[in-house]
Design brief:
The structure is a single chain. The chain is an alpha/beta fold. It contains ten helices and 17 strands. The strands form four sheets. A seven-stranded mixed β-sheet has the order 3-2-1-4-6-5-17, with helices on both faces. A five-stranded mixed β-sheet has the order 9-7-12-15-14, covered by helices on one side. A hairpin with a 3-residue loop joins strand 14 and strand 15. The longest helix is centred in the last third of the chain and has 47 residues.
């Protein structure tokens, strides 16, 4: 009869292997649709001809989709609206309503035209969940040069006198370069280029905003973050909810000098901090930033710091490698957060101490600082802070969303986050399965088995939503799958001593049994020697008795 019995809940190893096979043989990809709308004032090519040209242009883009892209098949739909007529060729259920937008509407301004398109498109989705990206060609002679405008939702438009071949080419470039790749150029780092998303394994993020007063004896600044900051950040938090549960907190700290040194530059009119000094800027000894109570477990904390320099180093500027001063006077640290160097109004090289005057940042100053932080958050997620340096061979404008992320950018984040979390979930489950198989004495609680089963169910749901093109739901399910897998792997019972290896037992019990074993061994040797002596005497006695007879 066994004195002890080790409980081992069975793990679905076959299901884990099946998930691995599916993810590696058929990586998750999200089908999309492209709907090209030509708003014309005259005649032109037929709908079928334009659709064929567009399909060819998308499939033969110079750079195309990278191997790491999560974009799946792309369905093409074309609508030609000319005068009072409207004809379409479509393989997808496009919500476009003919006549709802005309060539005359674009003169009302880009913001108004963007909302008109959003209304005409009904949100840019269709019944099966697949997202449709719409690009409208507005043919007009009133615009001197051709320009492209990327909207806040899932559409863009081209305005100008542009021929059909050029229009088709621009549609393909906008779709592939921005809607599918997020504007990331070849060789650049960013989303889908090996960058990690700053999201905890439990799907939680804490955005910690800190206002640091380097020397309170000079001046002390405060802010109205609870009212202004949280109001600006709420749309961002809601937009990112499918990929992370975000908590926001703020604090004001004092006596927080930086670690690096700056030098005075009379030509630039201030103290200058070079890019080489940035790695030493954060003063971990004096900046007590990690005070969050909401950052528990495996949550990720992102620090966003507003640094107010002292009077003797104000104004403090960040100098770029090309010698120019940074326009934002800010920098980011990947997976840590970002810093904004904020020079108080009116400070100069001749600034004098103000005996610790208490001042509050104006609402406009706080809003401008938070706009920089939102741009830094975009960078931390692998997107560009802005697209000012982008080139499309024609003038290109990007409308800024109040959420900080355009809808087509959120689609991109959802896709990559879902795929990244599915792969992380698989790696964790495979590690847990290998660990259990290699340690036969390991306790596997029933709760661990249930968590693994739920993780697999969530992973299957994420894959199913991916095949339907439902990006946000797939991201939510993938986040849950990863969190459950991590919970199973780091279950408290895993640290039980019952699954220790034989070597571990040997190391523990050897100090107890070695002294006893030594005495037993010595006694056994002594008894063996005595036995040999006594046996020799006995054999000698038998020999003497035989001789006497």
């Amino acid at each position: 009869m066994k004195s002890t019995k080790i409980h081992r809940s069975p793990l679905p190893s076959d299901a884990i292997a099946d998930l691995s096979h599916r993810l590696h043989s058929h990586p998750p990809s999200f089908p999309s649709g492209i709907h090209a709308v030509f708003l014309r004032s005259g005649r032109g090519s037929t709908v079928s001809s334009l659709a064929d040209q567009l399909e060819w242009a998308i499939s033969t883009q110079p750079h195309g989709l990278p191997a790491s892209s999560t974009a799946g098949s792309i369905s093409v739909s074309v609508t030609v609206q000319s005068g009072g007529s409207c004809s379409s060729r479509s393989t997808i259920a496009s919500p476009w309503r003919c006549g709802s937008v005309t060539t005359a509407d674009w003169v009302r301004g880009d913001e108004v035209f963007d909302e008109l398109l959003h209304s005409a498109l009904g949100g840019g989705g269709c019944g099966d969940g697949m997202k449709i990206y719409t690009i409208v060609i507005v043919e007009t002679d009133d615009e001197k040069e051709t320009r492209v405008v990327i909207g806040k939702h899932r559409h863009a438009w081209v305005v100008g006198k542009v021929d059909e071949a050029e229009a088709v080419s621009l549609i393909g470039k906008v779709l592939i370069k921005y809607f599918m790749n997020g504007g990331i150029e070849e060789g650049e780092t960013g989303i889908g280029k090996g960058e990690f998303m700053p999201v905890g394994s439990d799907g939680n993020i804490v955005l910690s905003f800190s206002l640091l007063n380097a020397d309170p004896s000079d001046w002390v600044y405060d802010w109205d973050f609870e009212n202004i900051g949280e109001r600006m950040l709420n749309p961002v938090v809601e937009a990112l909810r499918p990929i992370a549960d975000i908590n926001v907190e703020s604090q004001v700290l004092y006596h927080t000098p930086k670690s690096s040194y700056s030098h005075s530059d009379d030509k630039l009119g201030g103290n200058v901090l070079s890019m080489g000094d940035i790695p030493f800027f954060v003063n971990s000894n004096e900046w007590h930033l990690d005070t969050s109570l909401s950052a528990t477990g495996r949550s990720k904390v992102l620090q966003f710091v507003v640094y107010v320099p002292s009077a003797r180093e104000c104004p403090l500027y960040l100098q770029l490698p090309d010698g120019e001063l940074s326009k934002t006077n800010a920098f980011i640290s990947p997976m840590w957060g970002g810093v904004v160097i904020w020079n108080p109004p009116g400070c100069s090289l001749d600034s004098k101490k103000m005996s610790g005057t208490h001042t509050k940042m104006s609402p406009q100053e706080l809003m401008e600082t938070l706009e920089i932080f939102i741009g830094q958050l975009r960078q931390l997620f692998g997107l560009k802070p802005n697209y000012h340096a982008q080139c499309m061979d024609v003038a290109t404008k990007f409308l800024v969303s109040e959420k900080g992320f355009a809808q087509w950018e959120l689609d991109l984040l959802y896709r990559h986050h879902a795929c990244s979390n599915l792969l992380s979930c698989l790696a964790t489950l495979e590690s847990l399965s290998s660990l259990v198989q290699s340690l036969p004495r390991m306790i596997v609680m029933d709760e661990i088995g249930r968590q693994v089963e739920l993780s697999l169910d969530a992973a299957r749901l994420a894959q199913r939503n991916a095949t339907l093109g439902i990006r946000d739901s797939s991201a939510v399910s993938a986040t849950r799958a990863r969190a459950l897998a991590e919970d199973a792997f780091f279950h408290p019972s895993i640290s039980s001593i019952s699954y220790a290896s034989v070597e571990h037992y040997f190391a523990i019990y050897m100090p107890f049994f070695a002294p006893v074993s030594l005495h037993v061994l010595l006694a056994a040797i002594k008894e063996l020697k005595r036995y040999k002596v006594e046996r020799a005497k006995y054999l000698a006695f038998l020999a003497s008795q035989a001789t006497a007879l």
